[in-house]
């Protein structure tokens, strides 16, 4: 058997590598346990605090001890990609993933996807506006979901073009909506718009390329 690489100190065989690395992992939706939403919500609050406080040294030392304890408590439960509820609990804000914007999907189908939510203090760029880098994160995840909801095979973003049309406020309910414009062979062209009421904040066009067999 051909040997391709090392993982966590173990040699990975070709058949294992195909299953875990050589193709895109197969994700299945999951119903997260009752405390997962609470855990993720508390972690989001913690992130907000982490970027917004100015803490006395003694308080910070104590908090750091407790955070390090939490990290140690969770460490034995690390699982491979695709096995955590994170990102797979589609009914939760941000699909239950701390990385994703904590937005809730309102519409999900071949005609398009719409999601609603707020940018929080954690997403602050400058002068009260969302950081410019957080919009592509929102759009890129939307593009993946739009392609998925359209029934296209797993595709990767080849490009993502964002036009920033107006300042994106924090703590303000916004919507993002998009759909497939056209499909040309492996290429799916997708567009989406970020709105505050009737005001266009940003729009985005992406080229999503269907993966070839074996492409990751
Ligand atoms: C669990 C329950 C929940 C379910 C509900 C949620 C679902 C949720 C799903 C999420 C699904 C994941 C979504 C991941 C979305 C990412 O964010 S992926 C991460 C970001 N993207 C990447 O890392 C991609 C990196 N790039 C690559 O891997 C490779 O470049 C690609 C994109 C696979 C393409 O490589 P390739 O297959 O070798 O393609 P190549 O032959 O170069 O080009 C093919 C054609 O596309 C054109 N093309 C390629 N790149 C470009 C470009 N940048 N601009 C213009 N044209 C281009 C070429 O010119 C060529 O055109 P033709 O000559 O055929 O006309």
UniProtKB/TrEMBL annotation:
Query: What membrane topology does the UniProt entry give?
Result: Peripheral membrane protein
Subcellular compartments: Cell projection, Ruffle membrane; Cytoplasm; Membrane
User: Which reactions is this enzyme annotated as catalysing?
Assistant: dodecanoyl-CoA + H2O = dodecanoate + CoA + H(+); hexadecanoyl-CoA + H2O = hexadecanoate + CoA + H(+); tetradecanoyl-CoA + H2O = tetradecanoate + CoA + H(+); (5Z,8Z,11Z,14Z)-eicosatetraenoyl-CoA + H2O = (5Z,8Z,11Z,14Z)-eicosatetraenoate + CoA + H(+)
Report the SUPFAM superfamilies cross-referenced here: Thioesterase/thiol ester dehydrase-isomerase (SSF54637)
Q: Does the keyword Transport apply?
A: no
Give the family, as the similarity comment puts it.
Belongs to the THEM4/THEM5 thioesterase family.
What is this protein's name?
Acyl-coenzyme A thioesterase THEM4
The organism is Rhodococcus triatomae
